Amino acid sequence: MFGDNQFFAVNHISDEKSRAQSIKFREDSAIIKTLDEARSFGINTFMCTTHDRIANICDIVRSEPEKYKDFSIYPCMPYAHKYANAVTELGIAGTIKQYVPGNLFGSILKGGVAYLSKDFLSIMELLVDAEMKMFKGVNTPVIFLQNVVTDLLLGLHADEILIGFYNYVKKKYNAEAGFITMNMPKLLDVLENGGIKNPIICASINKAGFRMSGGKKIYEDTLKTRQFRAIAMQVLGGGAIAPREALEYVCNLPNIESILFGASSRSNIENTVETIHHFDAVNDRA
Amino acid sequence: MGISHLSILGAHPDVEVVGVCDTSKMVNDFLSKYGKFNCFTDYQKMIEEVKPEAVVVAVPTKFHYTVIKYLLEKKISVFAEKPFCLNSLQGQELVALAAKNQVVNQVGYHNKFIGTFGEVKRIINSGALGDIYHFVGEAYGPVVVKPKQDTWRSDPSEGGGCLLDYASHVIDLINDLLAPISSVKASLLKSIYSNNVEDAVYSLLELSNGVSGVLSVNWSDDTFRKMSTTITIAGTKGKIVSDANELKVFLKDANSLKGYSKGWNVSYITDLTEEVDFYLRGEEYSAQMDYFIKAVANKVPNSINTFQSAWNTDHAIELIKLSSK
Question: What global pTM score does this model have?
């Protein structure tokens, strides 16, 4: 599965590298070129945040239906920076006012009345719809909730909203919900308690134990003993682990449905895909 | 109330959140409905009723003095967000009160819980850089990138402005890594898009140990995706350039520091980060809260980000303001 950090200058270890990426992917055509290269190596799934520029990529995908007929986008929402800045400036209610379309909530947001569970669920649904607009007509079989939101709700014990997200994307978009998290074992408990069987969870899984909250061992035990579909991200541990060693570790773990990775060059994409296939084949023989 | 502070506390196994206070009915309804939190709109009523051992204060800076004083008088431990107070007299009073009542006190300057900066401090203290003669503290980011409507960010009496909100992080880091700022030679406070506050701060600083250097902070720089803080330290035997992700160390001599060789050494946050039990937006936010909780439980000394150290930062902010006039 192909990620989008490299396109938007997100680099967890170096500001210099992120600047170089921002220059390389200044034009949308550079993003499409890299996505086409990934497709040529059999990677037909692109997982991306709902960044403004993704709307342009969706336009291109829609304009060539034959070329992209096997291509899927897994949207990850929301694009957190947009909302984080708004919340600091406008407050939570102000942010919702700004981003929830229409004036349906005008009366509720005036205050004075009690907010019911269904109000919060409706706000969540309207925010999902707003983020999904750009994907109309594009194949989006899985829709992800970003880790900042997943984990914030997890700490606030707002389990019902997480479950509500799952139910809503199923009902409205005929899609499966995925959850990105930095707290995978905790989240799995909450989703299972909420009645979601075999959920899709995308989390940092790497040999260095980087961003594996609570420790690598709890993650490994969870993968070995519980039922869920794990998508491993940050497999290189932000660059701390050599690629071959990193991929060998992840490929050897059970329950890994997919590996999310990003790369800027054709040769890096090719190397990564080949290495994953190599270790998969080794494991199949074992 | 800080929603991410609450989420981190809500996930912490050693913490029972006994009360939450916010002025927004919508926020309170959400929190009581889902998290089953006991919510209040009046903080004094909350304190009277739930009698907490410790309180996290995440309100606009202009309310810090009043709220924190009330808590300290009741001998309640306090974690407050940064900056500490809007003037150094108020801060001084709170520092003294916390000491008198012997309560744990901490301010949210989270850079001190970032692995790269922790390693910078260790290297400086080892003496491997020789005599330090210069530093540059920088932070850039895209907070105010166009002229727009007024918010609390544009009101200096509410803690708005690049100096209080953004530069305070860098000032605090310089105070901690090197020595407290004792005088300011000259400062330029520049407004780029804002009408009432500065969007950039450029200053020549001198520290209590005689070392001098430069502060350069701009929150209207949209060539950065998010806040980026860098510290450069030059000594007679080496140099450090570090941000929150990447630490670059140049040493003139071999064997001057264990684990480092002659010339450039580069290491990354991934090698320098301690794992946390719950992650939200950065290890440092969980780590600082965990440290506060442990200090309240008497498991660690209350020595990082104390009110006193945050006061040093407030004081430096005042010196910078004075020098710009």
Answer: 0.92
